[in-house]
């Protein structure tokens, strides 16, 4: 089954996630990630992809292009923003103080609304 949405580079056909097709699975001898085997799948359709255990995803090796992944990009952006905020708080004590006071006022407002 196709692990993600892609478009065939030779015929231009769209292949959607979960579409079944015949393929052969092989071990990639040269590569591994922390002792985890990396597998490659390919067949008569001239599209090949391999596992990517580091990012818990798949990579296209040849024969197709991957479609836009909005959800993945949004998750990466939120991670980056959180890391930037933590770094800024660590480097700037005034920002840390502002963040703590903001959190405490939110907690107080939440408790007051619960009491009502």
Describe the protein's architecture and organization:
This protein is α+β, with helices and mostly antiparallel strands. It has two domains: 6-66, no CATH class; 70-115. 39% of the residues lie in helices and 31% in strands. It is built from two helices and seven strands; from the N terminus they run βββββββαα. The chain has helices at residues 70-91, 93-115; strands at residues 6-8, 14-15, 24-33, 36-42, 48-52, 57-62, 64-66. A four-stranded antiparallel beta sheet has the order 3-4-5-6, with no helix packed on it. Strands 2-1-7 form a three-stranded antiparallel beta sheet, with no helix packed on it. Strand 3 (24-33) and strand 4 (36-42) form a beta hairpin. Helix 1 crosses helix 2. The longest helix has 23 residues, at 93-115. The radius of gyration is 23 Å and the shape is elongated. The termini are far apart. The mean pLDDT is 84.
Layout: helices, strands, pairs:
Blueprint: E1 6-8, E2 14-15, E3 24-33, E4 36-42, E5 48-52, E6 57-62, E7 64-66, H1 70-91, H2 93-115
Antiparallel strand pairs: 1-2, 1-7, 3-4, 4-5, 5-6
Helix pairs in contact: 1-2
């Amino acid at each position: 089954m196709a692990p993600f949405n892609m478009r065939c580079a030779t015929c231009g056909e769209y292949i959607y996630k979960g579409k079944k097709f015949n393929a052969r699975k092989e071990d990639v001898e040269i590569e591994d990630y922390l002792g985890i085997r990396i597998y490659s799948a390919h067949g008569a359709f001239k599209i090949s992809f391999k596992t990517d255990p580091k990012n818990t995803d798949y990579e296209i090796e040849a024969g197709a292009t991957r479609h836009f992944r909005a959800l993945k990009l949004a998750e990466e952006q939120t991670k980056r923003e959180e890391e930037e905020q933590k770094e800024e708080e660590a480097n700037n004590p005034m920002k840390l103080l502002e963040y703590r006071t903001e959190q405490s006022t939110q907690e107080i407002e939440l408790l007051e609304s619960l009491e009502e």
